[in-house]
Amino acid sequence: MSALPTAQGRSMSDRLAVAVSEVFAPAVLLSLFLVLAALHSAAWPESVLLAAVAVGFTAALPLVGVIALVRRGYLVDHHISDRRQRLPVLAGTLVSIGIGLALLLRLDAPAAVVGAVVCTVAGVLAVLVVNLWWKLSAHSAVAVFAVVGMLALFGAWASPLVLVPAAVGWSRVRLLAHTPGQVAAGYAVGALIGGAFALLVAAG
After folding, report:
1. Burial (0-12, 13-18, 19+ Cβ within 10 Å), 133
2. Residue 14 CA from chain centroid, whole number
3. DSSP assignment of 114-176, as one string?
4. CA 33 to CA 138: how far, in whole Å?
5. Distance between CA atoms of residues 193 and 170, nearest Å
6. Global pTM value
7. What DSSP character marks residue 76?
8. CA-based end-to-end distance of the chain
9. pLDDT at 132 over 90
10. In the predicted model, is pLDDT for residue 88 greater than 90?
């Protein structure tokens, strides 16, 4: 796939696609989902601590690491567009998430918070395995997972969010970061893991 368009010469559609990809990036959506899961499942101020641990180890620290590697020239960009560079990054992310999960269990976090992190681990593993031979859209996978998860937590109030995965998928194809097939594969992975989270919430 081609690299993202340069700032010079971008059309309005390209600029919109870049904005959508950034605003609804995996780290952003995942962080929002984890914060809402913690606030929904635990009382104040415990919920704040749980949200900080979940977001810190699941999204923030891995993102900081990626940005540092980009600045040092080890990664092409913070979206890790080169599939060959994803394996070590995803492996490092799993280590960080594992530490965070251990802390959450130590803090006796509610099932919804622990489940959200466990499902994130499942998502990272799925992307890692697929990326050994192919490149699926992590943006699309996380978008669907987060939206399904929020629907499970908040019901109909979260229904407008169903537009987010469609916008994200369009942006990734528009920017030539993924093919429609890779976006569809991301949707499938996100739906599967989001469905598992929804079952966990329903059982709780």
Report:
1. exposed
2. 22
3. HHHHHHHHHHHHHHHHHTTT----HHHHHHHHHHHHHHHHHGGGGGGGGHHHHHHHHHHHHTT
4. 16
5. 21
6. 0.86
7. S
8. 43
9. no
10. no
